[in-house]
Amino acid sequence: MDLVIALAAVLGVAAGPPQDGIAAEVERAWAAARAAPEGPARNAELARWLDLRQRWPERPPVPADRMQGAWEGWVEAARDLRFDEALAIGRPLHAEARATWSALSLSLTLNRSGHPREADAVLGGQIEREPAVAGLWSQRGIYELANGDEAVALGYLDQAVELGSADARAVIARLDLSRERWTEAREGFREVLVHEPTHPWAARAWGVALLAKPALPGADGTRSYSVQDPAGPPAGADDARR
Q: CA-CA distance, 17 to 141, in Å (whole number)?
């Protein structure tokens, strides 16, 4: 090992710590993160700890309590819009976890900080690993819709619906509502409420779709609306509206 370090010095190459020492460095970095006050100081130490882990080829998985601690620092920074700080934790933490929760969290942080293409790449990569997770398809579709690519978004949302996502079905119905496709919107929201009566906003939107029916434009060019005669809510929707 001394020969390797010596050769690196001669050749001008930065040698990393020996493998039998990197574990100790990682532990010291974690101890420093725990000792630091919450906020930017702790998050800087968490980012350094994760960076050191990335240099440890034979590293073990991150223990659950440490994963939780790093995630909490990431979320705290993102909520305060300290996105560089949040991503310094979020990117390497997702590289460690490669899980649905980390992909969704990282894509959200990336979108909010103005990196929509990287966010899409994160979700796409996770979908390759977990193609049957409806939430990944749904979130990818929602982001693409926000970014203005409706055709691509609907493809992702349709896939999420096939996998059982009520949120994706509600988003499609909401899009129908915004385009005044009243029948499609009513059918979509009703389908959501049949399967998920307590959906947080589908009942309200379903009510709007029931009530609003555009009449033919009047002589003055204005458009009026009339009240529909609804067929009745699906079972359980009354509770959802309260």
A: 43
Number of domains in the chain: 3
Q: How far apart, in whole angstroms, are the C-alpha atoms of residue 64 and residue 71?
A: 10
Q: What is the mean pLDDT of each run of 10 residues along the chain (242 residues)?
A: 39 46 94 96 97 93 95 96 97 96 97 96 98 97 93 96 94 92 90 89 84 52 36 42 38
Amino acid at 177: L
Find the CATH number of the domain harbouring 133. Answer: 1.25.40
* Two structure tokens written together for 222: 């204005």
User: Is 102 within the bounds of a domain?
Assistant: no
Q: In this structure, are 42 and 74 located in the same domain?
A: yes
Residues 37 and 75 reside in one and the same domain = yes
> Angle at CA 229, nearest 5°, toward 211 and 186?
55
> What is the span of the domain harbouring residue 141?
111-164
**What SS3 state is found at 226?**
strand
The model's pTM:
0.76
- Scanning the chain, the segments in alpha helix (DSSP H) are 2-11, 19-35, 40-54, 64-79, 83-97, 100-112, 116-129, 134-146, 150-162, 166-178, 182-195, 202-211, 237-241
- Classify residue 222: in a domain, yes or no: no
